[in-house]
């Protein structure tokens, strides 16, 4: 850094910093109050003003600290000072934030300057520190502080001078060139400075990226110097550059370097800066680099999972298609397929969310969607890169793991029924074993049942196939299918009610069966009445989960061979009386999505598709006619 | 064509207003955005017509007229030449930022680091913030770049020089351009230009062979002093890259070394060969190192050069006494 002596009165210029050519004169007009006085006297104006709004003690005390830092950073351009700057950036930006709020509460710039006489100098020095101005957050806050000190209508000489100074600093920062020879040449060649600097930056990044990419040269010999020595330093220097798009290839190279050498560690501050930029969505890294970031930084992985959960669970009226999109865009399924360790973390978070939410339906469908996206990514991986699926599910009951993870589309529809019978009886056996042994090791037993259920939630495509089969009116073999459905909706067997719930589910099925196989017109009114009662959370204990009944109803409506008009009419009546229009529409959409993914025998596909379309039309009309007043009286949720 | 000239004229007037008139205090973000649109238009005119002598001539004439008018209206205004058009947005920005009447709201817009993308002036909002970020990032990274390289800046300039030459070759104006660049360089700038020339000669893209040829011919045939300066300014590793890459350069380099040697005189006082003509003077030791590096890079050259040196030594009387013939002393130094 050279020049910037224009406009300097020479009065106070850098008496303190002792540089031959020093940029700090820019802070002159604002520093005129106290630059020549000792640090104690700096506090005097503030003490005199104690009767009015006093700056927060922390703002004032810390100002001296940061002033000392800024002076030290400006005096030597050594690797140590650069490192120190990088490592202080986060603290600096929170201090700038405090300063900003302080500036904004004080009435005038003159007053601010009286209270914080060193402020102008500090800001001036920071403006000429490239580590500070390279960092998005610090730069933004620095500019905001300057705007805060700018007086739209200056009332005295101090404010007029401050205004001029602010304009001059900003003009010089953006238009002055350090390298006169280069500037001259670029002018002759007609290259605009902006493009030139961008090219130089890109070039530097490419050179450094290439160096980083060189493999470790010490080959395990700890005493030999190797190229890894520069990794830590480079990552520290990159702290201010985490949200600079041009630096992304270098940051990506740092993150993706294979961890072969003990000296190739990345700086914690670098990883923290990346995590924070990631959560603020200002990180511009390639997908693969983001995955590497998750490997390096657990907190950023957790952040990503929680943000996915939040975005999915908070979006009301979201469609199943939208959920698939959100999940895939989160990049997490891909990262999980590539790295088992990431999958285990993500799954742990899902596990505890599921427990906390007590089996909330949105959480369940998110977990199912996530698992199916994950399985798709696993299938896309090269076979040699793929770890055995068992490694991904160490806590799940291994006997049912592969059968559950198998997709319905991976076997002929004729085999579904047999497969489900087997799955259901295996799970039933497993839960009975654990529940019987409850007296001895109940915690462990509960844990195993939970894991079996968690796996079923992840692979709920089989639950959906069983409701589909139950909806096709077949009377034989419905026991195991109903058990699977009941277990999915009532995993805990609280109060040993499962047997009773099973009986209720069987009765519900019988009602529906009667309704959807009765001769057309008129639909038996008492059946419909009963259904509505089942769908409403009534006083009876144990209540059967309404969403269980509801999914049965929908599958009957879609898959039964009853004339379409009758099915439409039943759905219309039940939905209208229970007020579950939105839920029905959403369930139909997700059924459609699943069927389009190939979980329906092809001969039946067209018929089913037409039926879904007709049912959707009915619901659309109902939604349009649904008056707000009416919707208030129906507040059931599934 | 006429409308282009009219637009050019108004754009230049706009530049003058932006830099010198109090009228900018009425500007809002849309005025700012459209001012930059016009500046881009001028850049486009430049890139489209700079190689078209007829149009360029007409535009230069138009600029002269406009500049004359503007001189009268804004006495302090700087003239806009045709080449200036290539960096018109930059001119506009400098003018605006130096105009004390520029509204603070516009300043804020230019320096806003997180401007919303749909603000309607995507290209200008945060413009200065981006420039500062980019310049700062270069400064932050520069200490990390390996010391052996010429530097990313020289490499970029070399690449740009090649592009420019490529565009000028078809119009036979490349040499003229190089001359004019060189005329503008003095002292440190001239030395810097040598680094850029070297970097340009070392760029590797298929399309640049013709540009390499032109630059090399210009350097070797017309610019002996620039060639010498290049040979003394460049780090040895870079010189050897050039020697490997360009045969013509290798031979010219050898001749430069011989010329340096021939200009040396033996200082009896110092007991050393000294050379005072080149600036900075090359020492006898440095000269030896140059020869050694050359032999190491091109071992096949060694015999020929040594024969030449030997012939020169013989013409000096073929004495084996130190201080009588620079060639003899060089040879004995090289054989050590």
From TrEMBL, chain A:
This is FA complementation group C. Transmembrane segments: none annotated. One of its GO terms (biological process) is interstrand cross-link repair. One of its GO terms (cellular component) is Fanconi anaemia nuclear complex. InterPro entries: FANCC. It comes from the Eukaryota.
From TrEMBL, chain B:
InterPro entries: FANCF, FANCF_C_sf. GO terms for biological process: interstrand cross-link repair. Pfam families: FANCF. Gene3D superfamilies: 1.25.40.490. GO terms for cellular component: Fanconi anaemia nuclear complex. This is FA complementation group F.
């Amino acid at each position: 850094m050279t020049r910037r002596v224009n406009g300097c009165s020479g009065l106070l210029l850098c008496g303190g910093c002792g540089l031959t050519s020093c940029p700090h004169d820019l802070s002159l007009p604002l520093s005129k109050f106290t630059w020549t006085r000792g640090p104690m006297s700096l506090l005097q104006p503030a003490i005199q003003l104690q009767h009015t709004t006093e700056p927060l003690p922390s703002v004032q005390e810390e100002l001296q600290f940061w002033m000392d830092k800024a002076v030290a950073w400006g005096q030597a351009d050594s690797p140590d000072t650069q490192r120190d700057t990088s490592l202080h950036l986060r603290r600096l930006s929170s201090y700038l934030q405090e300063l900003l709020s302080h500036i904004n509460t004080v009435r005038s710039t003159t007053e601010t300057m009286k209270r914080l006489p060193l402020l102008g100098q500090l800001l001036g020095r920071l403006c000429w520190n490239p580590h500070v101005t390279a960092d998005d957050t610090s730069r933004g806050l620095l500019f905001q502080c300057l705007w805060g000190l700018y007086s739209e209508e200056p009332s005295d000489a101090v404010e007029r001078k401050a205004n001029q100074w602010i304009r001059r600093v900003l003009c010089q920062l953006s238009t002055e060139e350090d390298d006169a020879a280069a500037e001259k040449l670029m002018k002759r060649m007609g290259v605009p400075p902006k493009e030139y600097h961008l090219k130089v930056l890109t070039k530097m990044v490419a050179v450094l990226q290439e160096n980083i990419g060189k493999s470790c040269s010490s080959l395990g010999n700890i005493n030999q110097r190797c190229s890894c020595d520069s990794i830590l330093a480079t990552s520290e220097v990159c702290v201010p550059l985490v949200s600079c798009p041009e630096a992304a290839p270098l940051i990506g190279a740092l993150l993706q370097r294979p961890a072969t050498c003990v000296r190739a560690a990345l700086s914690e501050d670098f990883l923290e800066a990346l995590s924070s930029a990631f959560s603020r969505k200002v990180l511009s890294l390639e997908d693969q680099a983001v995955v590497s970031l998750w490997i390096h930084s657990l907190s950023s992985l957790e952040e990503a999972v929680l943000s996915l959960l939040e975005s999915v669970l908070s979006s009301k009226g979201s469609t199943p298609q939208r959920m698939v999109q959100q999940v895939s865009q989160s990049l997490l399924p891909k990262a999980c397929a590539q790295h088992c360790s990431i999958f285990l973390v993500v799954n742990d978070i899902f596990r505890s969310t599921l427990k906390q939410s007590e089996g909330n339906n949105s959480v369940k469908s998110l977990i199912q969607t996530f698992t199916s996206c994950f399985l798709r990514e696993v299938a896309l991986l090269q076979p040699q890169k793929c770890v055995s699926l068992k490694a991904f599910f160490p806590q799940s009951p291994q006997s049912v793991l592969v059968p559950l993870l198998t997709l319905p589309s991976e076997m002929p529809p004729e085999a579904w029924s047999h497969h489900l019978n087997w799955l259901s009886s295996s799970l039933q056996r497993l839960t009975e074993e654990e529940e019987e042994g409850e007296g001895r090791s109940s915690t462990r037993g509960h844990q195993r049942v939970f894991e079996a259920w968690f796996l079923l939630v992840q692979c709920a495509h089989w639950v959906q196939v069983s409701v589909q089969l139950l909806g096709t009116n077949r009377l034989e073999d419905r026991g195991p299918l109903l058990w699977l459905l009941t277990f999915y909706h009532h995993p805990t067997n609280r109060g040993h009610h499962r047997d009773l719930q099973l009986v209720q589910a069987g009765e519900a099925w019988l009602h529906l069966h009667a309704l959807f196989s009765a001769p057309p017109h008129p639909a038996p009114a008492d059946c419909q009445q009963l259904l509505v009662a089942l769908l409403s959370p009534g006083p009876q204990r144990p209540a059967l989960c309404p969403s269980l009944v509801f999914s049965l109803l929908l599958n009957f409506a879609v898959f039964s061979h009853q004339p379409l008009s009758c099915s439409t009419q039943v759905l219309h009546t039940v939905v209208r009386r229970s007020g579950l229009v939105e839920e029905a529409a959403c369930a139909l959409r997700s059924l459609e999505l699943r069927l389009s993914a190939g979980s329906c025998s092809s001969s039946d596909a067209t018929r089913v598709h037409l039926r879904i379309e007709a049912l959707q039309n009915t619901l659309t009309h109902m939604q349009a006619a649904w008056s707000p007043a009416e919707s208030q009286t129906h507040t059931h949720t599934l | 064509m006429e409308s282009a000239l009219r637009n050019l004229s108004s754009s230049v007037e706009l530049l003058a207003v932006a830099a010198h008139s109090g009228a900018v205090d009425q500007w809002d973000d849309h005025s700012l955005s459209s001012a930059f649109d016009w500046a881009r238009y001028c850049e486009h005119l430049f890139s489209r017509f700079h190689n078209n002598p007829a149009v360029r001539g007409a535009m230069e004439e138009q600029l002269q007229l406009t500049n004359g008018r503007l001189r009268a209206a804004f006495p302090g205004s700087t003239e806009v030449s045709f080449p200036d058009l290539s960096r018109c947005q930059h001119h506009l920005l400098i003018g605006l930022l130096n105009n004390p009447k520029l509204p603070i709201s516009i300043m804020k817009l230019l320096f806003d680091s997180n401007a919303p993308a749909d603000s309607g002036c995507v290209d200008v909002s945060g413009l200065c913030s981006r420039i500062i970020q980019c310049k700062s990032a270069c400064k932050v990274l520069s200490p990390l770049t390996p010391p052996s390289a010429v530097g990313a800046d020289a490499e970029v300039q070399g690449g740009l020089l090649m592009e420019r030459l490529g565009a000028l070759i078809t119009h036979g104006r490349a040499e003229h351009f190089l001359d004019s660049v060189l005329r503008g360089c003095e002292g440190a700038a001239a030395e810097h230009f040598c680094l850029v020339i070297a970097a340009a000669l070392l760029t590797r893209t298929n399309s640049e062979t013709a540009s390499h040829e032109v630059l090399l011919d210009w350097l070797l045939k017309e610019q002996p002093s620039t060639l010498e300066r290049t040979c003394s300014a460049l780090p040895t590793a870079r010189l050897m890259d050039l020697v490997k890459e360009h045969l013509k350069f290798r031979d010219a380099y050898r001749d430069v070394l011989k010329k340096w040697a021939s200009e040396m005189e033996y200082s009896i006082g110092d007991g050393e060969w000294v050379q005072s003509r080149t600036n900075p003077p090359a020492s006898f030791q440095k000269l030896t190192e140059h020869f050694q590096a050359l032999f190491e890079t091109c071992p096949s050259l060694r015999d020929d050069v040594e024969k030449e040196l030997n012939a020169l030594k013989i013409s000096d009387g073929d004495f084996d006494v130190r201080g009588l013939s620079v060639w003899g002393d060089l040879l004995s130094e090289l054989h050590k």
